[in-house]
Design a protein that fits this description.
disordered C terminus, 2 domains, Alpha-Beta Plaits, alpha+beta, 4-stranded antiparallel β-sheet, FAD/NAD(P)-binding domain, 244 residues, binds flavin-adenine dinucleotide
Length: 244
């Protein structure tokens, strides 16, 4: 796959103009362009009268090797980097010891999820309540000033930012593409797909609660394979906060 950077189009461009810009940039005909995917969309608003969208596009073409050779000196035509998340380990067969993760904020959630995806069966300990209960407690404080010191905007399933609008502006410099893994998991859990490519991704208010629930379900289903066991685990999760 070829990655094209700095493809600039007017703010109000038609959808078809993206593929036309690819053809123009690479000097190829329509039948040589197999497909393309938007990796990133930023903007240049320095001139208020001429705001531009700036695309980074991953392009599949018939004659990739030939084009890479042709554009060898062009910094805006390069091979698409390998962005696939590489797991650092795989749980040995018959592993009996289990990793313990303390807290189910974003760090605990991803630590648990990645451990489960590697085949481990993490035990996750969270001091606060499950996310729906926590929502009631948090809004109870914000609206009526009833503070529950154990269940609030700081403590509970989902962690501190659960009731935010979900701005995802971190990992601007991310040479190993770790942020991509996070974004992919968020989209799989119901975040808007555009967070995959917009320059300032933003999940949107009130979506995080459902996303946290889906992430937790996914984690549980990886750890506990049978439906009956899953139902039991969800019961344990919501009553004792101990995921086994
Ligand atoms: C109102 C608000 C809005 C925010 N908005 C954004 C945003 O839009 N974008 C953004 O990127 N960041 C935002 N943040 C920051 C973001 O929430 C944090 O950076 C992030 O939550 C940190 O993740 P964490 O997992 O390290 O810690 P936390 O989210 O704090 O999670 C820690 C978890 O551990 C649990 N815990 C603590 N002690 C124990 C214990 N002894 N035993 C068991 N469990 C324990 C807690 O209950 C909690 O669930 C916001 C934060 C707040 C408060």
């Amino acid at each position: 796959m070829i990655r094209l950077t700095e493809i600039k189009l007017p703010l109000d461009h038609e959808e078809g103009e993206i593929s036309q810009a690819i053809l123009k940039k690479l000097g190829i005909s329509e039948d040589q362009l197999i497909s393309f995917n938007m990796f990133k969309r930023g903007y240049d608003a320095r001139k208020k009268t001429r705001i531009l969208l700036i695309y980074t596009l991953d392009v599949v073409v018939e004659n990739e090797a030939e084009l890479l050779e042709k554009f060898t000196d062009d910094p805006h035509v390069k091979v698409t980097p390998d962005m696939e998340y590489k797991f650092v380990a795989k749980a040995p067969a018959n592993q009996t010891e289990r990793p313990v993760v303390i807290g189910f904020g974003p760090c605990g959630l991803f630590a648990g999820l990645v451990l489960a995806q590697m085949g481990f069966k993490p035990i996750i300990v969270e001091r606060g309540k499950e996310v729906r209960e926590r929502t009631k407690d948090t809004f109870g404080f914000w609206r009526k000033r009833n503070l529950n010191p154990e269940s609030n905007v700081q403590f509970g399933e989902g962690g501190a930012g659960t009731f935010s609008d979900g701005k995802l502006y971190s990992q601007v410099k991310d040479p190993k593409h770790y942020g991509r893994k996070v974004i992919e998991e968020f989209v799989a859990s119901g975040a808007p797909e555009e967070i995959m490519y917009v320059s300032k991704p933003h999940i949107g208010t009130f979506k995080l609660v459902t996303m946290i629930e889906r992430c937790a379900q996914k984690l549980l289903s990886l750890v506990v394979k049978s439906a009956l066991a899953l139902a039991l685990m969800i019961f344990i999760w919501t009553t004792t906060k101990l995921q086994v």
